[in-house]
From TrEMBL:
<dbReference type="Pfam" id="PF01467">
    <property type="entry name" value="CTP_transf_like"/>
</dbReference>
<dbReference type="GO" id="GO:0005524">
    <property type="term" value="F:ATP binding"/>
</dbReference>
<keyword id="KW-0067">ATP-binding</keyword>
<dbReference type="GO" id="GO:0004515">
    <property type="term" value="F:nicotinate-nucleotide adenylyltransferase activity"/>
</dbReference>
<keyword id="KW-0547">Nucleotide-binding</keyword>
<comment type="pathway">
    <text>Cofactor biosynthesis; NAD(+) biosynthesis; deamido-NAD(+) from nicotinate D-ribonucleotide: step 1/1.</text>
</comment>
<dbReference type="InterPro" id="IPR005248">
    <property type="entry name" value="NadD/NMNAT"/>
</dbReference>
<dbReference type="GO" id="GO:0009435">
    <property type="term" value="P:NAD+ biosynthetic process"/>
</dbReference>
<protein>
    <recommendedName>
        <fullName>Probable nicotinate-nucleotide adenylyltransferase</fullName>
        <ecNumber>2.7.7.18</ecNumber>
    </recommendedName>
</protein>
<keyword id="KW-0548">Nucleotidyltransferase</keyword>
<comment type="similarity">
    <text>Belongs to the NadD family.</text>
</comment>
<feature type="domain" description="Cytidyltransferase-like">
    <location>
        <begin position="26"/>
        <end position="188"/>
    </location>
</feature>
<keyword id="KW-0520">NAD</keyword>
<comment type="function">
    <text>Catalyzes the reversible adenylation of nicotinate mononucleotide (NaMN) to nicotinic acid adenine dinucleotide (NaAD).</text>
</comment>
<dbReference type="InterPro" id="IPR004821">
    <property type="entry name" value="Cyt_trans-like"/>
</dbReference>
<dbReference type="InterPro" id="IPR014729">
    <property type="entry name" value="Rossmann-like_a/b/a_fold"/>
</dbReference>
<keyword id="KW-0808">Transferase</keyword>
Amino acid sequence: MSQNFVVPRFVAQAVPPHTGGMRIGLLGGSFNPPHQAHRAISRFALTRLQLDRVWWLVTPGNPLKENGNLHELGERMQAARDVADDPRIEVSCLESVIRTRYTIDTINTLRRRFPGLRFVWIMGADNLAQFHRWQDWRRIAAQVPMAVIDRPPQSFRALASPAAQALARYRLPEIEAASLADRPAPAWVFLTGLKLNLSSTGLRNPDGSWKGTK
């Protein structure tokens, strides 16, 4: 169910600075904790997709995951800013402001409020493998172009997934990745060549604390 009932001015405050016509990648996640793979994926996407910015959308909680060990939003936001360390990567709490945990609500809000921006949804291959479990995943694919970043050894599982098979005819050759932001949805590309395979799960202790911190 959509929950976009927040006062519009608060939406504007939660969105990073931008100008009309910008090509913006959207990378959603819990960032619990953020890590160098998030940064590497974003910088990789900036180059390969010829984006102006990547926005990290720090979710209040993932509907497909157990959120009992989720750190406070403010802590994850600040940690994300520290890890990003790039003026082209911005951190946003938009999903908390519009009171949703669903990507479809986020995309609906951004497209409605900022029609002059060209958005691309960025996800890892591990997320493509379970994309068919996302709320209104077909509507997501129909509203925004998507870039899937290969994360070995997830390649085969991702490309054989129900969503990848259903959207196969909309897949672009990797050589055309730079044009993705200009394509009408549905359109997606599978990007290879990034070999960093960190995960937030691997950086958490059994009690939910982040490794390297108390």
